[in-house]
């Protein structure tokens, strides 16, 4: 019997979402481009707002798109019209906007005829052991996770990857916009602001590997409530030493102590990175690598740097 074709819908496709688009284009199981000649098991419908720049990115690649104002009724109509079985969110929004839109999209899934799988926009660190970090997630993602836990009739997973490893790259080598005030290493200005001791454990994953892992997970028959991938566990001090050796150049360094971070009003991810919350839980991550992602060779930082030489 021919496999039933599943339709995947992606919503709020920005920087990270575009990497996922590229990974799905490269994966022959997915039909992303209009008129694709293969017979894939999964098709992808992209859900967008009407910004012209974004439409250009997709139309240049001949990718299926739909427009939406992100309301519950609009998303539900698109899910029903496309027959989507899965909705994946990449929304980057704070506080109530994150919560309101994700509630609307969950309701749209529940009311739709076909969409019974949902990946909300998480894409961060260890949410099992540090659900309150980063602090600003406690007002947006934490309440939404509680809603998911109390909701029947839909399968969901919180997908997390630690830091995107691309932040170690100069801007011209990644689509992720540089975060010099947030990420401790600024590879463009060649400056490092070490938070805490710099020896606190982190995890990082190259963005293209995160994207490939999403493709694997979408094809998996069942999910766990949290899903983790990690290219490498390490510390920022180790990363600095590796980068300095690789480029033959020392970073200009400044420091922010753990006491300063704990006493600060603004969070800025500092507490998240010095508390261990940015490191995905090793045992679960490795067990899920074996279960879902054994076809992916996750790059270490060293692999990524050697790959761009
Ligand atoms: N682990 C890490 O190191 C790391 C790094 C970066 C991002 N992330 C996470 O990955 C996810 C995606 O990040 P990204 O960099 O891809 O995000 P992004 O490109 O900045 O935004 C994603 C989409 O969110 C929608 N959006 C943004 N602001 C909005 C607003 N005010 N109202 C309505 N929609 C809004 C936009 O969709 P439309 O244009 O279609 O409306 C945008 O394309 C987020 O959850 C982010 O926190 C994690």
Q: Which tags fit this structure?
A:
single chain; 309 residues; alpha/beta; Rossmann fold; three-stranded mixed sheet; 15 strands; 37% helix; 17% strand; globular; binds NADP nicotinamide-adenine-dinucleotide phosphate; NAD(P)-bd_dom_sf; oxidoreductase
Write the layout of secondary structure elements.
Elements: E1 6-11, H1 15-26, E2 30-31, E3 42-48, H2 52-60, E4 65-67, H3 72-82, E5 86-89, H4 95-111, E6 117-119, H5 141-149, E7 155-156, E8 158-160, E9 163-164, E10 185-186, E11 191-195, E12 202-205, H6 207-219, E13 226-228, E14 232-234, H7 236-247, E15 252-256, H8 258-263, H9 270-274, H10 282-292, H11 301-308
Helix pairs in contact: 1-6, 3-4, 4-5
Structure notes:
The protein is an alpha/beta fold and 309 residues long. It has two domains: 1-121, Rossmann fold, CATH 3.40.50.720; 160-309, NAD(P)-binding Rossmann-like Domain (Rossmann fold, 3-Layer(aba) Sandwich), CATH 3.40.50. It contains eleven helices and 15 strands. The strands form four sheets. Strands 1, 2, 3, 4, 5, 6 and 7 form a seven-stranded parallel β-sheet that branches. The longest helix is centred in the middle third of the chain and has 17 residues, at 95-111. It is globular. The N and C termini lie far apart (47 Å). NADP nicotinamide-adenine-dinucleotide phosphate binds at residues 12, 14-17, 48-49, 51, 54, 90-93, 97, 121, 123-124, 161, 163-164.
* First-residue to last-residue Cα separation: 47 Å
Number of helices: 11
Our count of domains comes out at: 2
What hetero molecules are in the model? Answer: NADP nicotinamide-adenine-dinucleotide phosphate
Radius of gyration: 20 Å
* Low confidence ranges: none
What is the N-to-C order of secondary-structure elements (H for helix, E for strand)?
EHEEHEHEHEHEEEEEEHEEHEHHHH
Structural class: alpha/beta
CATH superfamily membership of the largest domain = NAD(P)-binding Rossmann-like Domain
């Amino acid at each position: 019997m021919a496999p039933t074709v599943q339709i995947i819908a992606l919503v709020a496709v920005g920087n990270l979402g575009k990497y996922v688009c590229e990974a799905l284009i490269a994966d022959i199981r997915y039909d992303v481009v209009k008129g694709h000649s293969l017979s894939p098991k999964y098709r992808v419908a992209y859900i967008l707002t009407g910004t012209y720049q974004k439409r250009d990115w997709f139309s240049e690649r001949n990718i299926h798109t739909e427009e939406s104002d992100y309301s519950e009724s609009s998303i539900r109509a698109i899910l029903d019209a496309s027959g989507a079985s899965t909705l994946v969110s990449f929304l980057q929004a704070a506080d109530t906007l994150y919560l309101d839109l994700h509630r609307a999209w969950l309701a749209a899934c529940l009311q739709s005829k076909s969409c019974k799988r949902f990946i909300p926009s998480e894409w961060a660190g260890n949410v099992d052991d540090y659900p309150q970090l980063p602090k600003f997630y406690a007002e947006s993602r934490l309440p939404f996770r509680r809603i998911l836990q109390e909701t029947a009739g839909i399968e969901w997973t919180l997908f997390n990857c630690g830091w995107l490893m691309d932040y170690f790259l100069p801007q011209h080598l990644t689509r992720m916009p540089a975060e010099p005030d947030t990420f401790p290493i600024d590879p463009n200005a060649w400056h490092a602001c070490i938070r805490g001791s710099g020896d606190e454990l982190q995890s990082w994953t190259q963005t293209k590997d995160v994207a490939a892992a999403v493709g694997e997970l979408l094809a998996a028959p069942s999910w766990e409530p949290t899903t983790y991938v990690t290219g490498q566990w390490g510390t920022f001090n180790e990363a600095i030493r590796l980068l300095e050796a690789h480029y033959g150049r020392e970073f200009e360094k400044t420091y922010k102590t753990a006491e300063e971070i704990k006493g600060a009003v603004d969070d800025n991810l500092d507490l998240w990175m010095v508390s261990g919350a940015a490191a995905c839980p090793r045992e679960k991550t490795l067990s899920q690598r074996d279960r879902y992602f054994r076809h992916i060779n996750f790059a270490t930082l060293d692999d990524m740097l050697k790959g761009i030489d």
